[in-house]
Amino acid sequence: MPITTQRLRLRKPVKADAQAIFDQYASDPAVTRYLSWPTHTSVKDTIAFIEFSDAEWASTGTGPLLIETLSDNQLIGSTGLSMETDYRASTGYVFAQFAWGHGYASEALTAMIELARETGVYRLEAITHAQHDISAHVLLKGGFQKEGLLSGHTRFPNLEDSTPQDIWIFGRTVNNAA
Q1: Could you tell me the CA-to-CA distances from 8 to 3, 142, 159 in Å, in that order?
Q2: What is the rounded CA–CA span in Å between residue 1 and residue 63?
Q3: pLDDT tens by residue, 24-50
Q4: How many CB atoms neighbour CB 13 within 10 A?
């Protein structure tokens, strides 16, 4: 089921990926700053993510995907599709610091839009922390609309302020032209 784009391969994570996921991005506080899951402090955290991924794929037919470069098979991040209903899904992405600024997020997002289309999803959503302008820019470039600011919506466990934070919600129908 791997998905191939011009420069990337997206595939389901397996237990053998745990150390690489941990080393490349999941344990990096700068990478995980604006994510809704805690920075991994041990490979056990990463194994728990892979077990969650396996369960998600088994129950919904979609879930997390690792992102590797085609040129050298290097793990650079993760994305995925999470079914919210039978017609609505959410997506997101995370990348190792060395992969920032190369257009990989846009390329992976385009692949998730296509996967959503292929799986019969009508509406695709994503959220960003209200101050995460770079991620918001990627979503806008991908044809998403900034639909609103949700005050005090999501806890971001890697920020000093542990209170629920404001987020932007983005959405699009998957048959919109990007």
Answers
A1: 8, 17, 30
A2: 12
A3: 999 999 999 999 999 999 999 999 999
A4: 24
Q: Which residues pair with 127 in a beta bridge?
A: 169
Beta strands in 84-131, from DSSP E residues, in sequence order? 88-95, 123-129
Helix axis angle for 133-141 and 104-118, nearest 10°, is: 50
Give the C-alpha separation, 96 to 68, whole Å: 11
**Distance between first and last Cα of the chain:** 24
Rg (the chain; Cα; Å): 15
Residue 152 CA, distance from chain mean position: 21
* pLDDT tens digit sequence for 126-171: 999 999 999 999 999 999 999 999 999 999 999 999 899 999 999 9
Nearest to 8 by CA among 58, 73, 53: 73
Tokens of 149: 């600011």
Question: The tokens 């990463």 sit on which residue?
Answer: 46
CB 110 within 8 A of CB 91: no
Helix (H) or strand (E) holding 171: strand 165-173
Cα–Cα distances in angstroms (integers) from residue 50 to residues 14, 65, 90, 124, in the given order: 6, 10, 19, 23
Vertex 171 angle, CA 158 and 119, to 5°: 100
The one-letter code for the residue type at 56 is E
